[in-house]
């Protein structure tokens, strides 16, 4: 989450570690047979292609898009020196306040 300077609201940025953990879990030996190794690579390739197609078809929520635009704007203002870190953080934090349902009056 803190590894890169980005307006994305994704929870993780450590994709490499996740991939390697998944990749290593497919083998039961330090030096697997070449056919087992290639079979696992092909399986992972198919999974990745499926995820890419799914991602292209996925439409993000309007709320998420608006939040990312706001964060990108605030980052620009910060980079230009118009906002200091505290002001930028306060404004970003304000965008992520929880929304509670309004209570009905009896």
* Number of structural units classed as domains: 2
User: What is the subunit arrangement here?
Assistant: single chain
Strand residue percentage: under 5%
What is the average of the pLDDT values?
A: 80
Q: Given the C-alpha coordinates, what overall shape results? A: elongated
Query: What is the tally of beta strands?
Result: 0
Structural class: mainly alpha
- Determine Rg (CA atoms, Å): 21 Å
SSE sequence, one letter per element: HHHH
| Spatial separation of the terminal alpha carbons | 43 Å
Ranges where pLDDT stays below 50 over 5 or more residues in a row are: none
Task: Describe the main β-sheet briefly.
Answer: none
Helix tally equals 4
Give the topology.
Blueprint: H1 15-24, H2 34-57, H3 62-79, H4 85-95
Structure description:
Helices cover 59% and strands 0% of the residues. With 106 residues, it is mainly alpha-helical. The protein has two domains: 15-57; 62-95, no CATH class. α3 packs antiparallel against α4 (85-95). The termini are far apart. 1% of the residues are buried.
